């Protein structure tokens, strides 16, 4: 099977709509196809990665722990748009610390999240083969 | 290059703004559904769309959606109209499609 | 060109379901191949045979069934999304112990892998949503 560059674009906040949860499900199932996967969090999508989701009062499932499993699924290119964070009063410190283990470097733990500028995101999009939006 | 599709009104959501902030020179933006309001003259975002067009981004609008909404006579200069067949052609001419939802 | 079409929204509430249909029809008329149409999120609601829309308006579910039959399309409804929203075929009815099923002709229920596979095999992915 050919390897394509897949970009999953996440621009919506979690819980207000189902898209955040159901797009993550595609990523996890899609991992089995061993494609070249990148995730993009921009606009309100950055809220999906904030730390400390507590959904008890909503009686909704807190699915944010699933993000920390991404590294185990070989999904380790997680692009977060800097301007989207800034516009929302957030910094990298407000986000979950997502990591993966590089087997080529003795399983060294590395950061999965890459902070990128809006301009870089525009360029990143052009490098992909297929772009999924939810 | 990418064919960007925008289907929500620029007065309702930030999808068009976000799209234009990311679209690279030489790419195409197709406004469909409520997104076609982004193609009309004299709105608070018309200048923004004109600016994009002068930056080598080609802007298209789906004619059927404009007509349905009674604004087909208010399209900005420079915006090209297409029908569904034209939409298909655009998706073939560009390398890939990105939907700004 | 080979297309995979992803539909994220249900019938009538969002124009996405209509735009997707018109695009798919136009692509077929131009001689392109529709590799798969994948219904996700509320898009699975396009696959229930129990809709009764007004007679003087389009019948979204039926026209997908008709297009599917005419062109031998692969209309796939995501199983996870379908389970959440109650779109059931005979297999799911048995498996989940439901007292009926509601899937419309021409649609089949399958996994999310079908979307990813469609993206790999097709030249273009079209996404219609909200």
Overview of this structure, please?
The complex is a heterotrimer of chains A (134), B (101) and C (130). Chain A has 134 residues and is α/β, with parallel strands linked by helices. Chain A has a single domain (5-133), classed as DsrEFH-like (Hypothetical Protein Ychn, Chain: A, 3-Layer(aba) Sandwich), CATH 3.40.1260.10. Chain A is built from three helices and seven strands; from the N terminus they run E-H-E-E-H-E-E-E-H-E. The longest helix of chain A is centred in the first third of the chain and has 12 residues, at 19-30. Chain A is globular. The model of chain A has no long low-confidence stretch (mean pLDDT 96). With 101 residues, chain B is of the alpha/beta class. The mean pLDDT of chain B is 98. Chain B has a single domain (2-100), classed as Hypothetical Protein Ychn, Chain: A, CATH 3.40.1260.10. Chain C is an alpha/beta fold and 130 residues long. Chain C has one domain (2-128): Hypothetical Protein Ychn, Chain: A (3-Layer(aba) Sandwich), CATH 3.40.1260.10. Chain C is built from five helices and five strands; from the N terminus they run E-H-E-H-E-H-H-E-H-E. Chain C has helices spanning 16-29, 60-71, 79-85, 90-96, 113-121, and strands at residues 2-7, 33-39, 75-78, 107-110, 124-128. Chain C has a five-stranded parallel β-sheet, with helices on both faces. The model of chain C has no long low-confidence stretch (mean pLDDT 98). Chains in contact: A-B, A-C, B-C. The B-C interface holds B 7-8, 32-34, 64-65, 83-85, 87-89, 91-92, 96-97, 99, 101 and C 1, 3, 8, 15-16, 19, 22-23, 25-27, 29-30, 32, 124-130.
């Amino acid at each position: 099977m050919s390897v394509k560059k897949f970009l999953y674009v996440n621009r919506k906040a979690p819980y207000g709509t189902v898209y955040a949860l159901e797009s993550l499900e595609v990523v996890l199932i899609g991992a089995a196809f061993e494609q070249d996967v990148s995730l993009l969090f921009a606009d309100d999508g950055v809220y999906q990665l904030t730390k400390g989701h507590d959904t008890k009062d909503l009686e909704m499932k807190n699915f944010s722990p699933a993000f920390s499993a991404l590294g185990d699924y070989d999904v380790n290119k997680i692009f977060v748009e800097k301007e989207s964070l800034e516009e929302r009063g957030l910094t990298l410190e407000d986000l979950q610390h997502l990591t993966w283990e590089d087997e080529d470097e003795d399983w060294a733990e590395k950061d999965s999240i890459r902070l990128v500028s809006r301009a870089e995101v525009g360029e990143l999009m052009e490098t992909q083969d297929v772009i999924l939006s939810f | 290059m990418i064919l960007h599709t925008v289907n929500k009104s620029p007065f309702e959501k930030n999808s068009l703004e976000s799209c234009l902030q990311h679209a690279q020179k030489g790419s195409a933006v197709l406004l469909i559904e409520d997104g076609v309001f982004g193609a009309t003259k004299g709105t608070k975002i018309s200048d923004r769309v004109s600016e994009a067009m002068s930056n080598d981004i080609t802007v298209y609008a789906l004619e059927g959606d404009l007509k349905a909404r009674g604004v087909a006579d208010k399209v900005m200069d420079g915006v090209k109209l297409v029908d569904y067949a034209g939409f298909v052609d655009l998706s073939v001419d560009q390398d890939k499609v990105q939907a700004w939802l | 060109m080979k297309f995979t079409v992803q539909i994220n929204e249900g019938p009538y509430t969002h124009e996405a379901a209509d735009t997707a249909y018109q695009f798919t029809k136009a692509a077929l008329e131009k001689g392109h191949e529709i590799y798969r149409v994948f219904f996700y999120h509320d898009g699975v609601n396009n696959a229930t045979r129990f809709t009764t829309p007004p007679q003087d308006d389009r019948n979204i579910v039926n026209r997908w069934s008709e297009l599917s039959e005419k062109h031998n399309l692969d209309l796939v409804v995501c199983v996870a999304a379908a389970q959440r929203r109650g779109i059931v075929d005979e297999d799911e009815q048995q498996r989940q112990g439901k007292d009926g099923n509601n899937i419309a002709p021409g649609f089949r229920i399958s996994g999310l892998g079908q979307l990813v596979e469609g993206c790999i095999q097709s030249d273009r992915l079209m996404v219609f949503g909200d």
